[in-house]
Amino acid sequence: MDLPTRNESLAELRKKNNFLTYSLAGSVSAVVVLAIAIVTRSAIVIQETPGMPNHTVIEQSSMDKGAQIATLSAVTSNLVQINPSNVEYQKAFVKSYLAPAAYTRISKEMDEKSHRLEIQRELGSYYFVMRQYDYDQKIDKHFVVGEVHTVNAAKDTAQMYVFEYKAHVENYRFVVDDVATYPGEQEHDSAWLENLKK
């Protein structure tokens, strides 16, 4: 038996065995670190609302301003653009953003508007042009101000409206708790409420 060759072969096997052991330990460590990173991660990147900026960051209980504006703009447009032929689609769209209590009230109002237009044989269309967005931190409300256009035959009539939203972010989702709509440009913000008390 060639003892030096045997010892050399055993040394090579030990060396390969040590390399494989260290490689396996490194791989296991990397998997554990990645698993911990995934479990503890709270920021994700989602793009789900039309008009939402690229690279929008939505966290479990918050989202950036661009995402809020895009979401409220989309919800407002879909609340305005009601007619008998698209009311079910518009209700399905806003349902994914409205809290159950708000959706119950708003969907009833959408059905009533659609029914009223059907009875009047109103073939016009509606669309919304956003002019301004504001958030009042004191009363935790969002304000979307813009023109509601009514288009009939060759006539396009615009009227300013304020859409007032109470909302929060829950489980990576923007949820609208309440919607109030009134004509004009004056937001019923904290300054307006203070002046009302005087």
Q: Can you give a write-up of this model?
A:
The structure is a single chain. With 198 residues, the protein is α+β, with helices and mostly antiparallel strands. It contains five helices and six strands, in the order αββαααββββα. It has helices spanning 3-40, 65-80, 87-95, 100-119, 190-197, and strands at residues 43-45, 57-59, 125-136, 141-152, 155-170, 173-183. Helix 3 (87-95) runs antiparallel to helix 4. The radius of gyration is 29 Å and the shape is elongated. 18% of the residues are buried.
The number of helices is 5
The CATH topology annotation of one domain reads as Nuclear Transport Factor 2, Chain: A
Oligomer status: single chain
Distance between the termini: 108 Å
Number of strands: 6
Query: Given the helix and strand composition, which structural class is it?
Result: alpha+beta
Could you name the CATH class of one domain?
A: Alpha Beta
- Radius of gyration in whole Å, from Cα? 29 Å
Q: Mean pLDDT, as a whole number?
A: 87
CATH architecture of one domain: Roll
The coarse silhouette is: elongated
Unreliable stretches (pLDDT < 50, length at least 5) are none
- Largest sheet descriptor: 4 strands, antiparallel
Q: Could you state the CATH homologous superfamily of one domain?
A: VirB8 protein
Spatial strand order of the main sheet: 3-4-5-6
What portion of residues is helical? 40-55%
- Beta-strand residue percentage: 25-35%
SSE succession: HEEHHHEEEEH
